[in-house]
């Protein structure tokens, strides 16, 4: 059985509220980017993040995650809050400040502009006390003030009638408040303590929305990250109508696939009038003969005409083929399993530790634009010799690649369909830090154009895995349907999952029926990259 092709442990850092040491090591640049396909040409967001001391990398990570999300709405500019200049905010539709470092030095020009502007301001977590101290009448004007961080165990955040999860390993605390005027200061969501009592997870008053924690740590498919993703609509696209679309991707299809399984999946989805995507790697390798009694195997699509015929059949039934790497494995390495295609990573190194957990190790040894381009070129040749139309969408195997790889893929495709890994240095324009402890992963509930410049078609609710492995529990249709239900909290979000054809069609039918029962409409990947 092939291994899970998703990044499930997304952001497992919670180093929040950290004191800033004396100075930053590097000087970050101001970086700008275009909005996602179909976004507003007139909307432009300023993203500011903390960037002093030894945790500058963390501030940049969170800044990247905020930047990726705001790209859904339009163009953006990002830089450290410390380099803000007076009047800068006036050039933008809104500003998002990510306060991750306790007592980060914030220019008074920014504080004064926030207090004076009528444009939407979204402020996350730390240093709200610097804003209130700069105002002589903050409590009167906004109807509340901060009290201090509540470090109670909070496993649930209630947002507009939806109970979203919050990982209890996150011990950083959530800001609590004294509310003086409930007509002005309105809770955007409620944090629920273990004893059932509640307090505001965030407060909106006038043009200022304050979130009492960083919503990017320990994110999963159904947690309070979705509340923040939706709240951005209030600031950047408040007239957006509610709409809920779904996507399905058939995963890990290579020359070794069973044509009958592919045709069965295509027939079912076609019978439901559901468009779908098929993730294809063009060369199958088993260099150690793991699945062939010790005898190595190596063949391409062209050498398996029945598989090619099945792929063309899938296209005729509404399927779109994407490139899912070249071999979906790396040389003869156990990376991390056995070197067999569809099991292993191709553009990143990993191993399985003594606790049966997959551990990311970093970029491959020959990591370069040349390496990525060579593998893509070889795969394109396989597609051509098999008589298949060249794909326009790329998905890195197991959603893992280096910053350089992602940037190279952007030049070759421009569109990915995945969850991404992000590294310090990409947003700040400094030397990229590829160290695994400093990288973060992110999924999206809507289309974005991420910091690598790629349009990213979202996959956000996971996949079916009937058996537990590598410390991951089994995942059944009910779990994906529950994730889809949570994602209804995002007013124009999606429920996007992937599915392995060797599982047959029963689980697929259950999942599709459940998601449609929630009111989602299945669309093609192309629908996520065009103007609505």
From TrEMBL:
CDD domains: CE4_COG5298. Residues 1-24 form the signal peptide. Pfam families: DUF2334. Keywords: Signal. InterPro entries: DUF2334. This is DUF2334 domain-containing protein.
